[in-house]
Amino acid sequence: MQFSLTADKFHPVTGGMVISGANVTLQLPFQPKRYYRHGWQSWSPTGWIEVDRPFAPLHPAIMRPMQGDPIYALDEKPNGSWLGAVEAPDGDVILLGALGLESHIELDGQTLHGWYEVRQEDGVRSLQTSDPTTGVVGLHTQLSGEWFIASGDETEVFAQYAALLGESLGKKRAAKQPRVWCSWYSLYTAISEERLLRILNELSDLPFDVFQIDDGWQKGIGDWEANEKFPSGMKSLAARIHATGRTAGLWLAPLLIVPSSSIYRQHPDWLLHDEKGYLVSAGFNWGEPLYALDTTHPAALEWLAALMKKVRAWGYNYLKLDFLYAGALPGIRHNGMSRETGYRHGLKVIRAAMGEAYFLTCGAPIFPSLGLCDGMRLGPDVAAYWDSNRDSRLLNNLAAPGVQNALRTTLHRLWLRPLVHADPDVVYFHTRENKLFPEQKQILRDLAEITGFKATSDLPAWLTPAERASLADFLNAKPSVKQTGRYTFEIGGRSVDFSFVMPLPKPLDSLEKIHSALLCWLANMPWVIKAFDRYSRWMLARSLRES
Ligand code: 9PG
Q1: Which atom of ligand 1 is nearest to the CA of 284?
Q2: Which of 127, 244, 424, 500 is 20 to 30 A from 198 in CA distance terms?
């Protein structure tokens, strides 16, 4: 494949070449029809998209930081974080991928354009102001602004890129992928010590390695102490989990701060601000606006390290750290570091403080987290339904919970597996309170078989004896897996085709456009989001009443 290239320097490597330049352009000798878009963080839409069907901006605007890189939220050209690829007419794939952080790709007609956000002088400044004891991984690649460029077979091109990323950013440490029972997707925030102990008991001989407590145990976001639903405290609960032979796992969102938290009142200087001095928005959830910690502020870093040590001392050896993108949002940082470099600086402190715990990142900016965690969520949340027409289609939110969005994004990130354990989120076996058809539940389990990261939130009380037996089989199985095409696999000799998962929501007709506009307008009002939130919590409480 011939193309012309503008870059400062280049040298050949296995499978392609490495080029340098803060700005690189690749002039393609054809008009690509499909573009591989890579989303910024775990939940961000990722996959092959039609070039002539741009992504519409997500709604409501306040949610944008939770769905993708907010800097590019309104960019309707095909674009994505760190890498991009196109399909050539001969079936080959052409990839342009950064080897450093803070880089972005856009396709403009026949031009593939890549740039580093950080100018060389900024990089040097951050190098000088960074902590010499922790160092800054990846900064040298950022300074030289390196890119990998290759054309050829899709699988080979992406594998070669992953190998180079492993050299510049590093790989996971933990060897074994744990089998996890997670409290989120059945109980949501309706967890309590009593309920969790009952479930722990009912799981009995099911082969889970980890019992992971999700959102709902804490006093508040930023106030990481047990709330009144956990009267014996988190340490005692971890001990009860250990007594069953399982690892205790805990969810935290350590980089988020909300107005009701004590840090917000006591340490306003730890929060991330923009150049005008306003707090940087990290979205809206739990009925409150979300803000971010500045992960380069020495006192905030000390607090983060102490928090990690505290939860380890309680006995939690599997940590799911969520909403991590908040730490990498654009803003002015205490030590002048650029956003992803500053985030990575903080994540290194977190990793060092948690020691040998299994570290699962979630809502995480992908590249800046590589090499520092063991597992990573590679897609948005699943739910006990296939897709939400309201969120995915009317509000343009392909990061909205649902099995289709989750499968689509995770499947397009499987090439990252040499670098990190790929968490595709939980699978379902129960039929109760579940809108998924059997074949939809099956394809979700197929993806978990492919990645080998197996988790569920199924309540033992909701499983029929047959469903419980299938869950046990699933946890014990280690089928052979072979990829046979972009979306096709052989799993234990069975052919599995994910193609039906891929289509994006259908375009809106004129009546639906009116419906969508009305919904977008409503969704922009915080009280509407709060009312929806309250309604879904009421529905949840109702469905859990008998269990
Ligand atoms: C706990 C959950 C679970 C889940 C995480 C994360 O409002 N939002 O856009 C939004 C997105 C994701 C989300 C929650 C809210 O889920 O992925 O596994 O831990 O947090 O709150």
Answers
A1: 7
A2: 424
Q: How far is the CA of 4 from the centre of ligand 1 (A)?
A: 43
Cα–Cα distance for residue pair 227/248, rounded to 1 Å: 18
Asked whether 361 lines ligand 1 (CB < 6 A), one says: no
- Which among 381, 387, 425, 458 is annotated as catalytic? 381
- Three-state helix/strand/coil letters over 310-339: HHHHHCEEEEEECCHHHHHCCCECCCCCCH
Name the nearest CA neighbour of 492 among 482, 501, 500, 484: 482
Q: Measured from the CA of 380, which atom of ligand 1 is nearest?
A: 17
Ligand 1 within 6 A of 391 CB?
no
Q: What is the pTM of this model?
A: 0.94
- Asked if residue 521 has pLDDT above 60, the reply is yes
**Shortest CA distance to 350 belongs to which of 332, 330, 370, 373?**
373
DSSP assignment letter at 185? H
pLDDT, greater one: 372 or 54:
372
- State how far the alpha carbon of 400 is from the alpha carbons of 268, 277, 527, in Å: 31, 31, 19
Interatomic CA distance for residues 70 and 63, integer angstroms: 9
Residue 215 CB partners (closer than 8 Å, separation 6+): 184, 188, 189, 251, 253, 322
Q: By three-state DSSP, how is residue 510 classified? A: helix
pLDDT in tens, 486-496: 999 999 999 99
Note whether 87 and 49 are within 8 A (CB): no
- Is residue 177 pLDDT above 90, yes or no? yes
Tokens standing for residue 447:
């993806």
